[in-house]
Write a structure and sequence with these properties.
CATH architecture of one domain in chain B: 2-Layer Sandwich
Strand order of the largest sheet of chain B: 2-3-5
Helix content of chain B: 25-40%
Oligomer: heterodimer
Helix content of chain A: 55-70%
Largest sheet of chain A: 2 strands, antiparallel
Shape of chain A: globular
Strand content of chain A: under 5%
Number of strands of chain A: 2
Largest interface: A-B, 13 and 14 residues
Number of helices of chain A: 14
Distance between the termini of chain A: 56 Å
Radius of gyration of chain B: 27 Å
Structural class of chain B: alpha+beta
Radius of gyration of chain A: 21 Å
Order of helices and strands of chain A: HHHHEEHHHHHHHHHH
Structural class of chain A: mainly alpha
Order of helices and strands of chain B: HHEHEEHEEHH
CATH class of one domain in chain B: Alpha Beta
Distance between the termini of chain B: 53 Å
Strand order of the largest sheet of chain A: 1-2
């Protein structure tokens, strides 16, 4: 028995646990500061200044908001289905955090002679895993909306479900082109493939080969995250905030948090799939590692991934404060009649090109 | 459709069907995003209020101030004209007769023993200022009175009196400067 226990690579488990803790903390902190960023971006676009009272430049505003949410009264409506009512935000939060497991966050670290990959699980169906988890995410919204026993919430749940299902199709089709190019569902393979491109990896980014695919994927990601112009599930003016109308205190906080984590994760995913992942543009990582050491390169590559993701987050916010909300029929029209054919065409053209170039 | 045209400012609405680029919608989104990003980098017109106070004009009508003469005697004689002029009925007062040993306090034989303005009722129209025959009441440049109770917003005479030129000459000069600016208008 003891021999078996010793045979397990305990360092491996510790290393993964630490990594998980770090990534979850990182996601939560970034989600917090996304709310701050959102308010600042909104304010600047509307010629205002935004929160600037709590701490220098309002840096402590998210803490104040979070504290406020914690101290709010926890209300569970009498007519709601209590178990599901609590399950809704839990599910939303869990699925939002689950996606971070397969993201490669940077080149590997070297600690005490061990090669520590900055990725929790490098499974060979990484992309598929993300799609599976994201599809579960819609249950969080649906269950919350339904169990609230409120007509507006129910309507919003319906909207969320139909929107997410229809946009996931186009998203998946846009992704197939990428998968055909890289020949694998494994995230690390997709990133490595891009990093081996010209100009220190910059020329290998998938966005140069799949601009249309990126556009479709980006639009679908907006819809998946319930961001404007696709924020119909929480249309304030029509549905009184939609599915989280009956929620208060930290349960509401979980929904809002999950949304921001989703946004961050989809931006990270887009950066990984289309913008070269943790690739530092114009720099060859292996030669750089020989100069300044592997751990510094890991840090720089991680920062590079974050920079790309933050830029995309900024574009998300920028779009939110530019484009007004779609009508529901327009949303369905765009999803089914425009994006899916586009993604299909993109897929067919890519397939044809790959066949032609290989023959 | 023979509508009478009163002005030439009316603009015809463009009802042409959308062309291909407009129907793509994407290009128009880019134009919109360009507009919003221009605003993003614009200078913001915000005035950081408590630290930074916007300048107001000399004719500005803020909280009331009760004037004194150069020797620091109250000018108000409790004639009640301001109260009559007040459209919001915010002013109330009680008159009293000046005693012999109070000549250094009040300018004339009659004075206001109690003088109250309800700042919640006041509409800051400045009619009391116009009505006063004794040069006794002015509207200053101070605004945003705050208080925790409604009662606290019924301002007493002590809350509104101009600083005494004998004891607080600097403050008096400052307040007097505002009043003189007003008089010039």
């Amino acid at each position: 028995m003891n021999i078996y226990l010793l045979a397990i690579d305990w360092w491996f488990i510790i290393e993964k646990l630490v990594l998980i803790a770090l990534i979850v903390t990182l996601c939560l902190i970034i989600a917090m500061y996304e709310t701050y960023g959102e308010r600042k971006v909104a304010a600047f676009i509307q010629d205002r200044i935004g929160p600037n009272r709590a701490g220098p430049f309002g840096i402590l505003q998210p803490l104040a908001d979070g504290g406020k949410l914690f101290f709010k009264e926890e209300i569970i409506p009498l007519t709601s289905s209590k178990y599901l009512f609590v399950l809704g935000p839990t599910l939303a939060m869990i699925t939002a955090l689950l996606t971070s497991a397969v993201i490669p966050w940077g080149t590997s670290l070297e600690i005490g002679g061990r090669n520590v990959a900055l990725q929790v699980a490098d499974i060979n169906i990484g992309v598929l895993y993300i799609f599976a988890v994201v599809s579960i995410g819609v249950y969080g919204i649906m269950i919350g909306a339904w169990s609230s026993n409120n007509k507006f919430s129910l309507l919003s749940g319906l909207r969320a479900a139909s929107q997410m299902i229809s946009y996931e199709l186009a998203m998946g089709l846009a992704l197939i082109a990428i998968l055909m190019m890289s020949g694998s569902l494994q995230m690390s393979v997709i990133v490595n493939k891009q990093m081996s491109g010209a100009l220190g990896g910059f020329g290998g980014w998938n966005i140069w080969y799949q601009p249309l695919g990126f556009l479709v994927f980006f639009t679908c990601a907006l819809a998946e995250c319930n961001r404007t112009p696709f924020d119909l599930p929480e249309a304030e003016s029509e549905l009184n905030f939609g599915y989280h109308q009956e929620y208060s205190s930290m349960k509401l906080g979980f929904y809002l948090f999950a949304e921001y984590i989703n946004m961050f994760m989809s931006c990270i995913l887009m950066a990984t799939l289309f913008l070269g992942g943790y690739d530092i543009p114009f720099v060859n990582e292996t030669t750089l590692a020989a100069h300044i050491g592997q751990n510094w390169v890991a840090l720089l590559s991680f920062l590079s991934l974050l920079a790309k993701a933050f830029f995309l987050v900024f574009v998300f916010m920028w779009i939110r404060w530019t484009v007004p909300r779609f009508r529901f029929d327009q949303l369905m029209h765009l999803g089914w009649k425009k994006l899916i054919p586009l993604a299909l065409a993109n897929m067919v053209i890519t397939a044809a090109l790959i066949l032609w170039m290989n023959s | 459709m023979n509508q009478i045209q009163y002005t030439n400012r009316a603009k015809a609405v463009d009802r042409r069907p959308l062309n291909f680029i407009e129907r793509l919608y994407l290009w128009n989104i880019f134009i919109g995003m360009f507009i919003t990003i221009k605003h993003f980098f614009k200078k913001k017109p915000t005035v950081q209020y408590p630290e930074q106070v916007r300048e107001v004009g000399t004719a500005y009508r803020g909280l009331h101030i009760l004037n004194r003469d150069e020797e620091g005697r109250e000018r108000c004689t409790a004639c009640g004209l301001c109260a009559v002029a007040c459209p919001a009925e915010a002013i109330s007062m009680e008159a009293a007769e000046r005693l012999d040993d109070e000549e250094h306090l009040y300018r004339e034989e009659k004075y206001a023993a109690k003088y109250e303005i309800n700042m919640l009722r006041c509409i800051f129209c400045g009619l009391c200022e116009d009505a006063c025959p004794k040069d006794a009441i002015y509207l200053s440049h101070t605004f945003t009175p705050t208080n925790y109770h409604r009662k606290g917003l019924i301002y007493k005479k002590e809350d509104m009196l101009i600083p005494n030129p004998k004891t607080q000459p600097e403050e008096y000069a400052k307040a007097k400067g505002l009043i003189d600016d007003k008089k010039k208008k």
